[in-house]
Specification:
- The chain has 32 helices and no strands.
- The chain has 629 residues and is mainly α.
- Helix 3 runs antiparallel to helix 4 and helix 19 runs antiparallel to helix 20.
Length: 629
């Protein structure tokens, strides 16, 4: 396959709707099959499998058909979608609905009628002659409409138009109308066996030949009546003479087979193509679409899908159609296809998986533009169905690894993270989280950094982040920094520093932001919480411990400390001093540098003042309670 071109076509609104709806059908089909497989329904009822796949394929067709009713006539995608619809409908008839011995007449006539609809032409005739229907038969398009209706098997339409031809001018019109009226129909004679229907058909066609050879066609000025009779008799030369009316060989072939052998199957159709004159009649006018139709009739799947990829410039059709054939067990190919994909130089994957992969890569090629992450998710759904050697998962991981995290928003990165996590790529998800938390920290976006850290439970970075937030807080007294942990209380238990950060937030709110009515009670709770924080070994980072002690300076004046709390604070200060002297002798990286907000002399004076105030409070407590040594 050629190097994948730009698939910006998939970003077109009409294609986006088709892709989105087709994805739903694809996922529903596979989910239903997996559910049924687990309950062993499919194993015993293969008809159910076939019905589900046929239903899914029809939904794909309906999606394209509905889109053609929505988009404007000048939409650049309209022509290709129309061709795709024709191909898909025909493939459904030949590959999915039919059996090797099954008759094709009804389905192929319906395909002919829908892909070459004569209703607008018929309506135009009636519209232009609405005031004088007696002259309807004089319209230039009158006979061409009748002949097309007969050729397509629309007998009721043909008879209706024929009823406007004056009987007194050509009495043979009654005979032709009677032949059309009595023509055997497969759908209305479904109770008959094929042998019985053939006998009935041969008897009727002998009448047609008899009328052609013995009836007087006087008054048939344009030869229309006689031409109708020749069509009913399956006169080959008459079909060839109407080349301009049929416009292509396959419409002519279907019409001819409808009268020459109405019970024809795929083998009969193939033989008629090889031995009949219809292809030769159009041999100088064939294009790539004709080649695809021919290969459909020849049951040549591998050539069909490759030609469709070239014609439609993408693998949308081939991926969905081959997947249906695979699920129904009808995927029989003459050869393997080698793909020159950016991810795999050479592949021996099943053919349907190769097309699923190529379609997915085309979606990904169109999708990044990070704002189109829905296309990425769609592509991943298809890749997950490529199960040989876990190829789909490998491609998803490779693609996610290549996303430039420095160039996307936080919400987009969040989607990428959850996609990786959803598909079990936990190492990749952790790596994405680490990159994004570092990016947020460098941008001083502490909330985002904390959210990413909580997702991946990165303890070491959580400690660094907590230190950075505390340092910023002590410098700015911005309570919003502490409030960052409020919604993550349960998620941050993996980091002592983050736990301290959250508890310090609780202390600060109780101590300094309480209402007057609650202040005394809240102040007691705040002091109790702070004393407990000081008692837990190594919970408060050494670099912030002195600043935490300084919070006691004003609180000691509130006279809410009890005796045990005062001694506990004193003991904590003594332990801090011991640790400080130890670090002066034997420095430990990360603990030597203490966070300082004032110059050394001012801070030392404040420290002495705190110690003196605490000592005074203890002495005062001794006196008040008459403590004896």
């Amino acid at each position: 396959m050629d190097e994948t071109p730009s698939f910006k076509i998939f970003t077109d609104p009409s294609w986006r709707r088709i892709i989105s709806q087709s994805r739903e059908v694809f996922n529903d089909l596979h989910q239903n099959l997996e559910t049924n497989s687990q309950t062993e329904i499919i194993k015993t009822e293969t008809v159910n499998l076939s019905d589900q796949c046929l239903d899914a394929n029809q939904k794909y067709i309906d999606i394209i058909d509905n889109e053609l009713h929505i988009i404007s006539a000048d939409n650049e995608n309209r022509e290709k979608l129309q061709v795709m619809l024709q191909v898909w409908k025909l493939c459904q008839i030949i590959f999915i609905k039919s059996s090797p011995s099954g008759t094709l007449l009804t389905d192929l006539q319906e395909w002919y009628q829908t892909t070459n609809n004569i209703d607008p032409m018929v309506q135009a005739i009636f519209s232009s002659n609405s005031e004088n229907t007696e002259k309807l038969h004089l319209d230039d398009k009158y006979w061409i409409c009748i002949l097309l209706a007969v050729a397509q098997g629309r007998i009721d339409t043909g008879r209706h138009l024929l009823s406007f031809y004056p009987i007194d001018k050509a009495p043979v019109v009654r005979t032709i109308n009677e032949l059309l009226h009595t023509m055997p129909n497969l759908s209305t004679h479904s109770h008959l066996s094929l042998f019985e229907f053939k006998a009935k058909w041969e008897y009727w066609q002998k009448k047609c030949v008899q009328v052609l050879t013995s009836e007087n066609f006087e008054g048939d000025d344009n030869g229309g009546m006689q031409t109708i009779c020749k069509l009913l008799c399956a006169d080959e030369s008459t079909f060839l003479s109407l080349k301009l009316m049929f416009n292509n060989w396959y419409y002519m072939l279907i019409s001819y087979m409808s009268y020459a052998n109405p019970t024809f199957n795929i083998s009969d159709l193939h033989m008629s193509i090889e031995s009949g004159p219809f292809m030769k009649e159009f041999e100088n006018e064939l294009d790539e679409f004709d080649a695809i139709i021919l290969k459909i009739f020849e049951f040549d799947v591998d050539v069909i899908v490759n030609e469709c990829v070239k014609l439609f410039s993408n693998n949308f059709f081939s991926a969905h159609f081959l997947n249906i054939l695979h699920l129904t067990g009808k995927l029989q190919l003459k050869s393997e296809i080698d793909f020159g994909s950016a991810f795999r130089e050479e592949s021996r994957l099943p053919i349907h998986e190769q097309h699923l992969i190529e379609y997915s890569l085309q979606l990904l090629s169109a999708a990044w533009s990070p704002s189109l992450l829905s296309l990425n998710q769609t592509a991943f759904d298809y890749l997950l169905k490529c199960q040989m050697d876990e190829t789909g998962i490998e491609l998803i991981e490779t693609y996610l690894e290549r996303i430039p995290l420095t160039e996307i928003s936080q919400s987009e990165a969040n989607k990428v993270f959850y996609i990786a996590f959803q598909y079990g790529l936990h190492d990749l998800a952790f790596s994405i989280g680490r990159v994004m938390q570092m990016r947020a920290l460098k941008g001083r976006q502490y909330g985002d950094a904390l959210t990413w850290n909580a997702k991946i439970k990165d303890c070491s970075f959580g400690n660094i982040l907590a230190d950075k937030i505390m340092e910023e807080f002590f410098q700015s007294n911005d309570l919003k920094l502490l409030d960052l942990t409020e919604s993550l209380v349960k998620e941050i238990i993996y980091s002592d520093r983050l736990i301290f950060l959250n508890k310090y937030r609780e202390f600060y709110r109780l101590a300094y932001l309480s209402s007057k009515s609650e202040r005394t009670e809240n102040l007691k709770q705040a002091i109790d919480l702070l004393v407990h924080l000081l008692q837990v070994p190594n919970l408060i980072p050494f670099k912030f411990k002195k600043l935490v002690f300084f919070q006691l300076h004003d609180l000691l004046d509130q006279n809410v400390f009890n005796e045990d709390q005062l001694f506990s604070v004193l003991k904590s200060i003594q332990l801090y001093e011991n640790r400080r002297r130890f670090l002066a002798i034997r420095p430990i990286s990360g603990e030597v540098h203490e966070c300082s907000l004032e110059d050394e002399n001012s801070e030392e004076n404040k420290w002495k003042s705190l110690f003196e105030k605490l000592s005074g409070k203890i002495a005062e407590n001794f006196v008040q309670n008459k403590i004896e040594f």
